[in-house]
Amino acid sequence: MTPTGGSSAVLVERRKLLDQLDDLLMQSARGRGAIAAVSGSTAMGKTTVLNALAERATAAGSTVLGVVSSPHEREVPYSAVAQLFHAIDARSAPPVAEDDPLAAAQRTYQIIAGLAARRPLLITVDDIQHTDTSSLSALRYVAQRLTRLRLALVFTRGVTVEEQPPRILHDLLYRTSVRRFHLGPLSRAGVRELAPSPPSDRLITEIHALSGGNPLLAQALIEEHRLRATPESTGGVGPSEGDGTPPLPEGGISIGPVFHQAVLAYLHRIGPRAVLLARCVALLDEAATPLLLSRLSGIDTELLKRYLRLLTGIGVLSGARLRHGGVRQAVLGEMPHDEATALRYRAARLLYDSGAPPQAVAVQLLGAGPLHEDWVLGVLREAACQALDDGDVQRGIRCLELARECCSDETQRLSVKSQYACGQWQLRPADSAPHFLALKAPILEGKLTGYDALWAAEGMLFHLSFDDALMTVEHLNDGDEEMATALHGTRMLMASEVPGVLDRLSRPLPATAAPAMSHSELRARHALALVLERGADEYAIALAQQVFQASPNAVTSQLSSLPKALLALCYADQLDAAARWHDHLAGDAGRHDAPAWRAQIACVGALVSLRRGRLADAVRQAETAYARLSGPRWNVSSALALAILIEAHTAMGDHQAAAGYLTPEPPPELFLTRAGLHYLYARGRHHLATGNTYLALSDFQGCGSLMLRWNVDTPTVAPWRLGEAEAWLRLGDRERAARLVEKQLARPDTGLSRSRGMALHGLALVQPTAQQPAILRDAFRLLEVSGARYEAAAVLADLSRAYQQLGDKRARPTARRAWRLAKSCQAEPLCQALLPTSAPRSIGTRGSAESRGDDRADQDSFGGLSESERRVAMLAAQGYANREIADKLFITVSTVEQHLTRVYRKMGIRNREQLLQGAHAVSYESA
């Protein structure tokens, strides 16, 4: 029998062994029979060594007979001897079970001795541990009579994990004349020899560590690396590490399907129990322990420990876990579906009985499907809550979807659906409305009660489904003392988010005092409602700060309180504190997979940025929030983001973008919400900026009417009186504007420095010019302290004009400062208004009413210039470079330079710096 050729690559670190076996062959050829046994773990190269030895013996003129034993033939008597007989003479009948063992052994010996007399003979038996005992008895008989035969017997023996070898095998292999060899893992030097090209030290270290020195796995990793480096797979060979091999990817060598399949092949070669154990390890993953693995697989504990040691030794396992996620997926992927389902059911029950965390049990249930047993529903719901708390919203929703299928009655199913609706809101807030609305009928029928029902009602409020929400809340407001605190929380939510809905209740909700140990959501709602009613209330600010101080330990389900607390600080004009907390929360957002919460934080962050004059940041944050929150229906959060976008774009002078956000028709329900107030005010500012003064007046008056009716008349939400006053000034009614400003100043505004500064700005603009500077300076100090840069820039702009009209030399430096501040806010209209050739501004963004006089010619520093020269001079005064001016005016750089030369000559100046000074503005680029 001619053996198959072996791979020279796998003979790495095996050649010394082959040389020693060659010596045995030469010894036997001289008439002194020899026996050798080569042992080693699976896939260590024993068969390859045997095949290489057979090739050498054949080349030397010996007769070679080979036997390959397998577990399937272990119980078939004389199956190994039969392979020898068929190789010698197909007509020779091998012994059978009924034959006398001694006679069979003698006959076998006679045939072998006859062959050895003619030529040197080599008999190899691969995997002798699987050889049947009858054949082993015959081989032992031959081995006992080797002394004068030209015969060499060479066996390979795999390391067995399960069964104890038969006594006769021990007698055969442990005779004193037997030379025994052991094949261990490859060293790093051996792994280096396997590689086809000189590898890097890092690559060798990685492969050796991942393979455990197992030749099969090491070759798989080398092939994986080779495939990654070929032009066909990468589009070209990347840069080398300096030794001819492609660089390793960041994080180590790539592990892919070649390695995964090699591990699977290795497991199957060990045996079915190794495959079963690997499947159990893959299923249990992090929850795996030797005891659980033994109970799940049915493998005896001691035997299982031997398997674990074997698989750990060759790098497949680390402890009781598979070392590589890809191998785990490969093991799971080849499992038959029915077997996987049955194992997962069993694993889930074992984990539950052993007291494992609900999340670990739920992992198995999610892979198995619905299971209608009493303990399953509670586990899935607990696991869902934990997943939502941990920020894994996707997994939480999957647990709830399966829990819904495992419910045994309608009450359970409805409770799960309420929890599921809240999970969907966290994941896709814009699309969650149907999940809440579907619960209305069961609530009214009394099938869904308590907190589950109240969550659904608050979800309806979020989506502006006020009629449905009111019916639900009215039904729940039945005097139940246990629900009093929860309904008080709903009352706080309505007062702060949808104040126009609160007075539509037929019966007031409980107004009980929140207990000291109340949860953060209730404290945040209370803080926001107090600030809207009282302004910068110290107790409300303290409540909000308390919510933030607990936020580092907050789980995802508790995060909904943080946007409300942030709003409370913003409406209390605590802009610096709000900005600090927002930055902290935004930086921590990555550990929470809660899109709704992140969108709400971005939305409130946009409002804080808007109030601090960071207009571009406000647009960016509001766009992010609006993209996540907007959907087929309006909701309170998307409406706020929309209002911020309108106001910010208007302040930046991008009226087209603002108009685009005003295109969708708002539903009437929006004007029952706090977000509706922001929307009306923002739309009024846009109308005012685009010359639609009467429309602006209508929006400001409508906003004020609602704020007065709802008792949330604080300018930190919307300074509607100042907006209306500006509109009346535009229409020439100074007295009416003055009355509105005075009413605003008469309101208590302790702590509201930004709002007070804006009101003083309005007051200055309805006063004679001589009285304006002192008031404007006070307004600027308040706005500067509060961090409101945009409003501060507007105040400085009006102060510079007042100084100019009064002939005060402070006009020019004040204008420069205003321009720099406006430029830092990216408020282009304000920058343009500060240039002497631009049209005068109005209140707030707002400039003075008196600046509307016909004094433009007096202020025009560019008199005597041609129109082309004026355009170039204007852009140069705004800080644009020559190339940028050329691009904007569609002329060459040379033409720009020529125009500027003439401008300098006509204005009697020498350079651009003097041009900027002459224009009463300085570029902010160097500031």
Explain this structure to me?
The chain contains 48 helices and seven strands. With 927 residues, it is mainly alpha-helical. The strands form two sheets. It has a five-stranded parallel β-sheet with strand order 2-3-4-1-5, with helices on both faces. Helix 7 crosses helix 8 (201-211), helix 23 (450-462) runs antiparallel to helix 24 (466-476) and helix 39 (753-765) packs parallel to helix 41. Mean pLDDT is 86; it is low at 1-9, 232-251, 837-860 and 920-927.
Q: Main β-sheet: number of strands, strand sense, barrel status?
A: 5 strands, parallel
| Structure summary, number of beta strands | 7
Give the assembly state of these chains. Answer: single chain
- Overall pLDDT confidence: 86
Beta-strand fraction estimate: under 5%
DSSP helical segment count: 48
| Integer-rounded radius of gyration | 43 Å
Going across the major beta sheet, what is the strand order? Answer: 2-3-4-1-5
Helix percentage: 55-70%
Structural class determined from secondary elements = mainly alpha
End-to-end separation: 91 Å
Shape: elongated
Poorly predicted segments: 1-9, 232-251, 837-860, 920-927
